[in-house]
Design brief:
heterodimer; A: mainly alpha; 17 helices; B: alpha+beta; Glutaredoxin; 3 helices
Chain lengths: 348, 79
Amino acid sequence: MSTLTSSLQRWPTRRPVLFLVLAAAVWWGLYQTLLPGSEALVAALPVDRASRLGGALQFFLYDTPKVLMLLTGVVFVMGMINSYFTPERTRALLAGRSEGVANVMAAALGIVTPFCSCSAVPLFIGFVQAGVPLGVTFSFLISAPMVNEVALTLLFGMFGWKVALLYLGLGLGVAIAAGWVIGRLKMEAWLEDWVRDMPRTSARFEDAGTTLADRIQGGFAAVREIVGKVWPYILGGIALGALIHGYVPEDFMASFMGKDAWWSVPLAVLMGVPMYTNAAGVIPIVQALLAKGAALGTVLAFMMSVIALSLPEMIILRKVLKLRLIATFVGVVASGILLVGFVFNAVL
Amino acid sequence: MDIKVLGTGCANCKATIALIGQVAQAKGVAVQLGKVQELRDIMGYGVMSTPGVVVNGKVVHAGGVPSREKIEQWFTAGG
């Protein structure tokens, strides 16, 4: 590797603040050119802008870079924030707190603490060992995969800030309420025995002394890992959206997913359980449903169910939770999601 | 040098093992590379996010695949 390329790679580390300011400016500038850029591109092609193909093309050319840029920006910032909120710090913040407040904190922390679904179990045990109440741990466990920055960014980029905000608020609501309810049910006895027998640990931890430059590296790593994994789904989702936008007749879906079909919400939640994709994978489906008449409540319920109630995660959790506790967990969360779906459809 | 990778077998854990193996080979250092997959044992190290890495009995990393640089540091620091 030549010295020029390697010093080029090093400069964000040596001048972190400068890098952040420049990156933000460049990102913003680029973002502003997207809409006019997509129109100009379509104008240059031998396609009638007013035609279905023209409409679909413009939608695709505008939305794809827009969503990818939003995602890159948000994932980078979250990658930096995540470096503050390690599981160890989160645990220290939650240990020994009384429920209620702790449930709210846990759900909120679930958004900013990095969480890989394979870590669900070690994390769960770690929390329990340090004296975080069971219900609070559940609030965290529900919010972390469900209310994640990828889902929120995609919803924002593709459906607007209202939908994103709604998902955020309702997701937190379900996490807090479900965790609190489980806490009230006093189900500590339903942890697998070996978990309860694990030694108590202290929640105190040492700050690893991460610098801003380290956090920037963390941001890069997050972008490489997340956007790198997720971009095909996004492309697919937007392409699908573009097709629907241009070609599928209105209200095609309304008949079985619309507001009037009361059973659409339970059906949506049920359909979500055996499915598990990451937040990005579900967006194409959400796109298709929403654009053509499906009620917003039903669609949100479906999305939450797919992400929060995943069969693979239940199977993993079976190692630490007895069946009755898992069933309770699924039951309470499903009820919460159902409620969200119904209330939403009724209110809007 | 004794290195253990803690994880229940997801893609990140496998990637970590592969990466450590590559770096070890590149540096020409002999390593005892082992996997710890039993939850009980993983918890014994006090690790909350997998994959975790233990070098010569000490936890040096937890959560996500470690960067190549980080792995190289473990080799230069001790072993």
